[in-house]
Amino acid sequence: MSEINFSDSDGLLDRIATALRDEPIPDFSDPCTSVAQEAGGRNPDRTFSPRPAGMEPRIWARWMAVGAAIAAIALLIVVLSAHGPGGGAGVAFAQVQEAVSSVKSMSCRNVSILGDQEPTVSAGVSVLGVGSRSEGPNGWVSITNLKARRSMWIDHKSHKAGIQQLYLDDGRKSADAGLFQQIRDLPASGAKALGATEFEGKMVLKFAFESLGQFVVFVDPKTHLPLRMELNIEKGSGGQRYREVTTDFVFDAPVDESLFEIRAPAGYAVSRCEEPKDRKPIDTHSWVASPEKGLGPVPMGASKDRIITLLGTPDLIEETYRGFERFQYPGGPALKGQKEIVQERLNYPSLGFDIDVSSREGMTRFCCYGRLLHFDSARDFLGKTDRQIGLGASIDDVVRVYGKPDIKTHLREDQLHYFHKGWSFLFREGKLASITAFQPRPDYIEFKDTGDGGWMEGVNPKKKLSKPGNK
Predict the structure, then answer these.
(1) Rounded to an integer, what distance in angstroms lies between the CA atom of residue 294 and that of residue 289?
(2) Pairing of strands 298-299, 294-295
(3) Which of 33, 71, 300, 384 yields a CA-CA distance of 20 to 30 A from 263?
């Protein structure tokens, strides 16, 4: 038996993926849900934590969107095959589209590794027009049910679960219809055909594609469906290398639809993020977002009660911090005494935004977003910034209006940070996916790009002393 080199992440990940091929794909049986019951009622104040403690937001979002991720494999193959050999791009595209359209279900296994952390293994299954389910490490389960228009996460370790509403009625019948419309409209570009190679004893087609990172995909030349997919990102979260291998694809196997039931295990703490039925309709088309003035009718500094009076009950209220007051930035104003404060996030995904509110300062931050960022778990925010920038704008559009950013970062997405102006813009696939506004930082606060997707901030004593009133 050869010795395992744990410092070789590539070799280790390949060995794990190879070993997993000898194991059967799990049947997704869930012992904790065998006695499950429908989660009844709502929390009176609709307050909860939408993800388990310690679950990084990006990881949580990935699990919640696992159905879209599995389905996106087919979307990716369409792009790649459009530039493949065998009859030209048009013929290849037609062949792949026909193969994808005929698939009713798919399952796969995923192994990922970030930096020198331990590999993470997960498995997922998706049924066209019905839903998806993914099971990951530490008792984490994510379920999407298109018929119920709900998604759910379950954390068996903490005995918690969360249910979130999906918005599939805004101009499309279902998430599946949206996916196949994307396939039909997709411009095939950027892919490279790497020719034929041997994989698991047979010849396959191999493609490379740049999207978020470097994709390498193995395609069965007979079925035009994926056999293996690899993703490599040299600078992932925190500047660390990220590698992912997806294998064990199974297509059109029978799947029990009970796997997608939105039911929480008995005795679990269940939280819901849903649009209140008694809330008055709100149209955000004419809203203006500004770090100085606020969001639409809500001024910066507005209290929690005032916000709810203006906008109605949030879809959910998340407590983000409770304790002593903290400095917002280096060199910030000194606080007199230590008083306990509560910081909460008022989430309105059905309207396309969330608001951070402090028990001392009122509204301190808001973020506007939509489907490009949160897929079917949010509606699009329809308003614009005080300089007429809306979701879907390009990076050039933002730079032309707001100038050079203090910091520009790029990991999986591009971000432009204008700390001194109170803006942060996040882009996905070259389009503006979220707009965040906050209290502008003073001129004497300086920022330095650390090159790993983060930054450092500090005080410039000369600038601080030169400001009127500073001594």
Answers:
(1) 6
(2) antiparallel
(3) 71
Q: Is the pLDDT of residue 400 over 70?
A: yes
Distance CA 143, CA 154 (A): 8
H helices of 377-452, in order, are: 395-402
pLDDT digits (tens, 9 = 90+) for 70-100: 444 444 444 444 444 444 433 454 555 567 6
Indicate the domain borders of the chain: 9-273, 288-466
Contact 377, 164 (CB under 8 A): yes
Using left for φ > 0, alpha for ψ between -120 and 50, and beta otherwise, residue 272 falls in beta
- Integer Cα distance of 80 and 78 in angstroms: 6
DSSP string, 98-158: HHHHH--EEEEEEEEEETTSPPEEEEEEEETTTEEEEE-GGGEEEEEETTTTEEEEEETTT
Q: Give SS3 for 310.
A: helix
CATH superfamily of 9-273: Lipoprotein localisation LolA/LolB/LppX (2.50.20.10)
The strand pair at 340-348 and 316-324 is best described as: antiparallel
Q: Report how far apart, in Å, the C-alpha atoms of 384 and of each of 130, 354, 364, 379, 392 are.
A: 35, 15, 19, 15, 11
Please report how the helices 88-102 and 175-185 are oriented relative to each other, as an axis angle in degrees rounded to 10. 170
The two tokens of residue 331 are 């060199």
Q: How far apart are CA 469 and CA 467, in angstroms?
A: 6
Q: Which residues pair with 236 in a beta bridge?
A: none
pLDDT of residue 49: 41
